[in-house]
Structures are given as C-alpha cells and as structure tokens.
Amino acid sequence: MALQATLQRNVIEDHLEDELESFAKEMFGKTLTECTDKEVYYCLLYIVKGMTKATTPIAGPKKVYYISAEFLIGKLLSNNLINLGIYEKVQGILAAKGKDITKIEECEPEPSLGNGGLGRLAACFLDSIATLGLPGDGIGLNYHLGLFKQEFKDRLQNAVKNEWIEKDSWLDKTDITFDVSFGDRKVTSRLYDIDVLGYDNGVNKLHLFDVETVDESIVKEGISFDKEEIEKNLTLFLYPDDSDEAGNLLRIYQEYFMVSNAAQLILWEMKERHYDLRKMYEHAVIQINDTHPSMVIPELIRILVDDKAFTLDEAIEVVKKTCAYTNHTILAEALEKWPLAYLEKVVPQLVPIIKELDKRVRAQYKDEKV
C-alpha cells in the first residue's frame, strides 16, 4: 500500500505541468496562462490535495492526540509545496506561464483557527511530529469566523468577522459524527480534517469539529451575535466575548463540545485498532494544550465508567497515565475559573467527577499553599 501511494504521488509529480493544465481546463475552461491568480491557486490546491491523499499516513503502536483551542497554522500552500519537495518545480512551471508564485500565494485565505503563541506552538508541534514521522493528530474546533479582524471606518478601529472558509479549501468533510449532550440540550458534531504533511515524510491529521446548524447570518454589526443560540453560534468564533454570563456559558459549551468529541474520537480509534482500553496509555498520549481542553480528563473518566464498565478508581488511573498538560502561564487573568453553577448548568454530568478529583488532590496535598 505504501509503495502504491508513492507511485501514485510520483506519477502526479512527473506530470505536474500537464496536471495543472488539465485542472485549469476542467475547472475554468482556460489554459493555465489565461487563468487568474486565484484560479491558479485552486488548481494548485487540488494538485497538492491529490498528492497528499497519495502520501502514506503515519502509523505506529502509540499516537499523540494534541487537543487545543487554537491552531495557528497559517497559509498552507507554500508550506505543503515545500514539504512535498515540488516548490521550485511549480515555481518554474508558473514562471514559464507568466505567473508569479508569490502573488498566487497571496490569494489563499488564511485559516482563522488561532491567535497567538498558544496556537502557533500547537501548529509547530503538528508540523514537527509529522516531519519526524511520529503518529500524532491535532484536535480542535472549526471556527467559521475565527477571532476577528480589524478595520478602520470613519477613522475608528472596528472589529469585524474574519470569513475564511471557501467552498474549495484544505478542509475535508468526513462522515464521522458524534452526539454531545449538555445539561439542557444535545447537538450532533461533524468532523472536518486538514492534512498535516511532514517534510519529505508521511501525513497526519488536524481534526476540527463543527456543527452543521451553525449560522453565520446571526452575526450582525461587527462581531455581535446572540450568545444564547448555542446551536447556531457554537463554532462561530474563537474566544467569544465572555464579559457577561451568556459569554461565560458559551465558552463552557465550546470547551466541552471540543473535549467530548475528542474523547469519543480517541476511544473510537482505539476500538478500530482493537486496543485494550485498560491499557490506553500504552497506545495514546493525550496532550492538553493549556486550560481550554482540560475537561477532557473528567469526560474520559465519565465515558469509561458509564459506558465501558470501569470502576471510578480504574478510570482515574488509566486517564492519569494517558493525559499530559502544557502550562503556558500562571497569570491569574489567563487561568480559567468558572462558577460551579455554570458547570452544573452546562455539564452537570462532569460535576461529581470534578468534585471527586478535587477531593483526592486536596487529600494528597495537605499544605493549603499548594
């Protein structure tokens, strides 16, 4: 299978110019020279995606699952061309057609999935893991409008929505769905994937969960929207305004939606590979990137106890050996704290587990300063 994939990828690479001309004719009824820069970008997008699908997925007995609220992956075209080893070849083909590859790169919308160092670290980890040939996937949310972008109007600075998802993009819609139950409602997720190419190596995945009921039209002036319409707003924005109770609750809905899907995906993959869940830590490492995905710990414990016939002690021990945590700061304003009443409203099923974990940690560390 690996040899077949390599041969398919080599066939595409050996006939790059013909493939580009073929896509230009099929998609736009033009020669490559006649295409606009944006149209050439779409041709390259499909060439790269085709070569990526013909690249061997990275596999191994143990896999990293990197859960993060942010993945600041940046524009992907040039990086993927470099990692496939065809950047200079493509650049030469385009130059011969009167096209400047840098102008074509500018046509690509940047995925609005991250904001700062937290998201850039996550993206760098995924890139490095794939380049090293290690099995490791990212898991996050498919934010339709990202954080926001700044515009000036009448000499005033305004925050506006950052629309980046196009019909033809790096996102691949899968047939994988999960049900996520909150205290007052249930939603069904849909998984989208972005391929993560290693440099001269295989391919991993960035898994992004979404809801098909999300509605961008509810965003009115600037980035204002009804925070209580959860089915419509759940995956609209990265870090929605949390200056009021509705915003705080939305953040909790988002974070639980992310970790519940992550937990279900990980356990589903374990089942597909016929692994023993009681030895989950031998096959999976769940890396929690800062506080936002931390509810994956009680969620995994809950599923193992409720659905997999684990005792509470057994579930805690397995999850403890499987999960690891990256701390980014100890600044009080960056450490998330939620009123217990909010958790009881959104994720009542986790509250008894959180209380039990708190009780055990307090018993282990008697010093009140710890």
Descriptive keywords:
single chain, 370 residues, alpha/beta, Rossmann fold, eight-stranded mixed sheet, two-stranded antiparallel sheet, 10 strands, globular
**Which percent bin holds the helix content?**
40-55%
Can you tell me the CATH superfamily?
Glycogen Phosphorylase B
**Rg, nearest Å:** 22 Å
Overall average residue pLDDT:
93
* Net shape: globular
Order of secondary-structure elements: HHHEHHHHEEEEEEEHHEHHEHH
Hey, roughly how much beta strand do the residues contain?
Answer: 15-25%
For the termini, the CA-CA separation is: 53 Å
Helical/strand content category: alpha/beta
How many separate structural domains? 1
| CATH fold call | Rossmann fold
Report the top-level CATH class: Alpha Beta
Given as residue ranges, the uncertain stretches (5+ residues, pLDDT < 50) are 1-7
Q: How many individual β-strands? A: 10
With helices defined by DSSP (H or I, 4 residues minimum), what is the helix count?
13
Largest sheet: 8 strands, mixed
What is the architecture at the second tier of CATH? Answer: 3-Layer(aba) Sandwich
Could you characterize the architecture of this molecule?
Helix 2 (16-28) crosses helix 3 and helix 3 packs across helix 4. The strands form 2 sheets. Strands 1, 2, 5, 6, 7, 8, 9 and 10 form an 8-stranded mixed beta sheet that branches. A two-stranded antiparallel ribbon has the order 3-4. The protein has a single domain, classed as Glycogen Phosphorylase B (Rossmann fold), CATH 3.40.50.2000. The protein is globular. Residues 1-7 have low confidence and may be disordered. With 370 residues, the chain is of the alpha/beta class. The chain contains 13 helices and 10 strands. The chain has helices spanning 2-14, 16-28, 37-53, 77-84, 87-96, 101-106, 117-131, 230-233, 245-272, 296-307, 312-322, 340-346, 351-364, and strands at 63-67, 136-141, 149-153, 156-160, 172-173, 179-181, 186-197, 203-211, 284-289, 323-326.
